[in-house]
């Protein structure tokens, strides 16, 4: 599917990025664009004396973006550095953020050689699937051992950070609602009603007191598997540009995208075995519903500046509208029960 933010990269730009990362004279032996992602341009490169790497190139600086999306490639670089010792992630070879070689931010990372869980999912039934979900739970628990000094998105330019999770999350939500107005995106529920439902959950949000690194995009397409002869295993977690410091349980939303993480017994067993906390109290369930609504809002709003189109996009949008309405009804019922 076409995405306006995934801008073309010329051969000259590929060569310039490689030279900055590995030195002048590093030859590109083979190059193939990877089109699964929707935000950045991504290339698989085979380099002389280096081997196979992944080059990710951000949209141009003047591209209209959602508020949280500004400089999110820098967030991904930070994530890869922080997670390198506690979770399986690609190695960061180079971060090109001074825009001297090319006019856009870029990253060079190691290449994971496997396939995504999404592509391999038909093979991952029964015991194999449960074993992998258990392994995934352990990996995510390791990721959630990383803590920061403030809540919100890491890049200060977004203005979406602070010292109290409830305040920061509401600011994050307000930013997406403002983005919807700025880009003329119709929402199924008035923004004021969404804000009121979220504000009612401040006591639940205030239970989060430690800023924890959350990936927030751990759907099956971003979980890479090695499906070799020894049997499938998780090779790594990719595409961490949506990461923020916040409630670790926010990751449960994409890990059970459009579903219910409480039904994923194998994942939760692995998560708890590796030290993760997952006690599904009423307040945690409300936070999860709120994070679901936030993710659905992002998915609805981002489609306009990215210029998504076509039948698949229309089906996805209708489904996200439905899921957003359902999440907000659930929050309304929970709020009413408190009165």
Q: What's the overall geometry? A: globular
Computed Rg: 20 Å
> How much helix, percentage-wise, in residues?
40-55%
Low-pLDDT runs: none
Query: How is the main sheet built?
Result: 5 strands, antiparallel
Give the domain tally. Answer: 2
- Mean pLDDT score: 95
Count the E strands: 12
What structural category arises from helix and sheet content? Answer: alpha+beta
CATH topology of the largest domain: Aminoglycoside 3'-phosphotransferase, Chain: A, domain 2
N-to-C series of helices and strands: HEEEHEEEHHEEHHHEEEEHHHH
Distance between the termini: 46 Å
Tell me what the CATH architecture of the largest domain is.
Answer: Alpha-Beta Complex
CATH-defined superfamily of the largest domain = Aminoglycoside phosphotransferase (APH), C-terminal lobe
General description of the model:
- The chain is α+β, with helices and mostly antiparallel strands and 339 residues long.
- The chain has 2 domains: 11-110, Phosphorylase Kinase, domain 1 (2-Layer Sandwich); 115-337, Aminoglycoside phosphotransferase (APH), C-terminal lobe (Aminoglycoside 3'-phosphotransferase, Chain: A, domain 2, Alpha-Beta Complex), CATH 3.90.1200.
- Helices cover 41% and strands 15% of the residues.
- The protein is built from 11 helices and 12 strands.
- It has helices at residues 11-22, 72-83, 117-120, 126-143, 165-182, 191-199, 202-205, 251-255, 265-273, 282-301, 311-337; strands at 28-34, 41-47, 51-57, 92-96, 106-110, 115-116, 151-152, 161-162, 212-214, 223-226, 233-237, 244-246.
- The strands form 4 sheets. A 5-stranded antiparallel sheet has the order 1-2-3-5-4, with helices on both faces.
- Strand 7 (151-152) and strand 8 form a beta hairpin.
- Helix 5 (165-182) packs antiparallel against helix 6 and helix 5 packs parallel to helix 10 (282-301).
- It is globular.
- The protein starts with 10 loop residues before the first helix and ends with a helix.
- The model has no long low-confidence stretch (mean pLDDT 95).
């Amino acid at each position: 599917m076409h995405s306006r933010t995934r801008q073309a990269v010329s051969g000259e730009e590929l060569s310039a990025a490689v030279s900055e990362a590995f030195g002048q004279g590093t030859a590109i032996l083979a190059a193939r664009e990877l089109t699964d992602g929707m935000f950045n341009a991504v290339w698989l490169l085979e380099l002389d004396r280096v081997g196979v790497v992944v080059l990710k190139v951000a949209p141009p600086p003047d591209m209209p973006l959602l508020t949280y999306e500004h400089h999110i490639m820098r967030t991904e670089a930070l994530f890869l550095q922080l997670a390198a010792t506690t979770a399986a992630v690609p190695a960061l070879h180079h971060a090109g953020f001074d825009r001297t070689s090319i006019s856009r931010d870029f990253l060079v990372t190691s290449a994971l050689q496997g396939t995504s869980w999404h592509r391999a999912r038909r093979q991952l039934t029964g015991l194999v699937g449960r074993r992998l979900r258990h392994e995934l739970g352990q990996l995510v628990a390791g990721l959630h051992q990383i803590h920061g000094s403030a809540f919100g998105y890491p890049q200060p330019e977004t203005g979406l950070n602070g010292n109290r999770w409830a305040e920061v999350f509401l600011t994050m939500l307000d930013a997406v609602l403002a983005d919807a107005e700025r880009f003329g995106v119709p929402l199924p529920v008035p923004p004021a009603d969404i804000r009121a439902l979220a504000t009612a959950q401040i006591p639940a949000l205030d239970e989060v007191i430690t800023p924890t690194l959350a990936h927030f995009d751990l759907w099956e397409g971003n979980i890479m598997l090695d499906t070799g002869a020894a049997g499938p295993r998780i090779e790594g977690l990719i595409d961490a540009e949506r990461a923020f410091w916040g409630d670790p349980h926010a990751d449960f939303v994409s890990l059970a995208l459009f579903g219910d993480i409480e039904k994923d017994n194998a994942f939760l067993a692995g998560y708890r075995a590796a030290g993760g906390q997952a006690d599904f109290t009423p307040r945690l369930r409300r936070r999860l519903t709120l994070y679901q609504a936030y993710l659905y809002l992002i998915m609805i709003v981002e489609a306009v500046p990215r210029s998504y189109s076509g039948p698949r996009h229309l089906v996805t949008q209708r489904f996200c509208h439905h899921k957003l309405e359902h999440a907000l009804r659930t929050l309304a019922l929970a709020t009413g029960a408190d009165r």
